[in-house]
Design brief:
45% helix; alpha+beta; 4-stranded mixed β-sheet; 111 residues
């Protein structure tokens, strides 16, 4: 009876978390982060165009995912984020060309 009880306790303490959560919660978070990184626009494939030099603009991973979602196969896209910030999104075909040169991430433009 004691050995059966020990086996049950062992299973509950050591095996239940693995069964319930796969490889553990940390592994799922890392996998989700990896998938999200694959959906983000890569640096150099987009360019923020800021019309006022004193504009403070903070971009997040969500914006980088949105940029990648707006990317087109054969044409460049200019998308307005707000009244002072636009983003230039290069086409997939432009990025894949031999000799592709990455864009500067932010440029300032006078109105």
């Amino acid at each position: 009876m004691k050995s059966l009880l020990k086996k049950i306790v062992f299973c509950l303490v050591f095996l239940a978390p693995t069964v319930l959560f796969g490889q553990g919660a940390g592994a799922n978070a890392q996998q989700d982060e990896k998938i999200q990184d694959e959906k983000k626009a890569a640096p150099g494939t987009y360019q923020f165009i800021v019309s006022l030099p004193d504009t403070q603009f903070i971009f997040t991973n969500d914006i980088l995912i949105q940029i990648e979602g707006l990317r087109k196969e054969k044409e460049e896209v200019i998308y307005s984020i707000n009244s002072t910030v636009k983003v230039r999104i290069l086409s997939t075909s432009e990025i894949m060309k031999p000799g592709f040169k990455p864009l500067t991430e932010i440029v300032y433009k006078e109105q």
